[in-house]
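Title: Prediction job returns without error message
Component: structure pipeline
Severity: low
Priority: P3
Assignee: unassigned

Description:
Job completed but the reporter wants confirmation the result is attached to the right record. Sequence as submitted:
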Amino acid sequence: MPEGLLLSLRKFIAPEFVFGRGARGLAGRQAAGLGVRRAMLVADPGLCPLGLPDEVAESLEASGIDYELFNALSSNPRDHEVMAGAMAFDACACDAIVAVGGGSTMDCAKAIGIVSANKRHILEFEGVDNVPRPGPPLLCVPTTAGTGAEVSQFVIVTDSARRLKIAIASKSLIPDAALIDPEVTVSMPRDLTVNTGLDALTHAMEAYVSNAHGPMTDLLALESVRLIRTHLAAATVRPDDLEARGGMILASLYAGMAFSNAILGAVHAMAHSLGGLLDLPHGLCNAILLDHVVRYNYDAVPDRYATLGRLLGADFPDDAPPAKRKEAVLAAIAAFRAELGVTQSLADIGVAASDIAALAQNAMADPCLLTNPRQPTVGEIESIYEQARRSGS
């Protein structure tokens, strides 16, 4: 490792977490340890028929903790849903939040907490370090393997009026604890497994090439990519395979800690714009954009992308010319997502040429661009969108 990187000043933050089969059953004990008496249980409404929120609720009750259920939220949480949740939190005199669901649920729970603590509208916290007071204790039980929200210092919320996803970054948003149980991911449908898995891959890759990376984030990002290459396809064809599910939710955890500290890049800036303007699935947007952004970024950090490419199956000799390396890496990324059935272009999922100017303007304002290894112009962002709109795998 270069001495400059090894000795450079870096900060690393992560919450307490419990990993393994049955971890969700510890919700009551963990909440009691945080001094919780009455919790708001923020749950993905789609999980309610599966009984997962009920299992967590039973664990809370067994530890003598009352709860109120809040599940009026969308797959991309809206500002007005957050505000409604904060009103319900205050009205029920809750003193903590327990989130059960994927990234949208955990983001909504985090946002509810800071709104309640600060008595301000959620959109007023946009940006970095704009949360004066931390929210109440927050315990997360992730049910997907991809977002890393259970360990990150980020919240993404849709500004309904502007049709724009805003990013909020603050140490105040890091959950107090997370219960990471691979068993709960078995019920994920194939499309969700693929999209969240490719979201985790994008987290890891962007953290590794970020201009804020460090030794700890590098370690986590690379192991995340290795685990995803090993386990994602297996999890899609054998959904009950707990080894594959465990490998994926561990990969998500590693990628979450990596990007929470090294931040992200242009893929996420552009995907946030797509999700805000057109309400498209975040993980799918990342997957479609990934190799196009890598092509744009590659020459800024070629050795790092070569390392990532080899983990994804790229095969080239050490003395291969730079252009050959680049094409091998891009081919490996495209082949991996094609293996998973993600062959769409942005046009295939509803992005029109007339959308691109607005998408690019919104992406340029996203804070994730600050840590991209190459700083694009608005015209270059438009060009990447257009390439991704016209060509799938």
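Comment from assignee: result matches the submitted record. Strands lie at 16-19, 38-43, 66-70, 96-101, 127-128, 138-142, 154-159, 164-169, 177-180.
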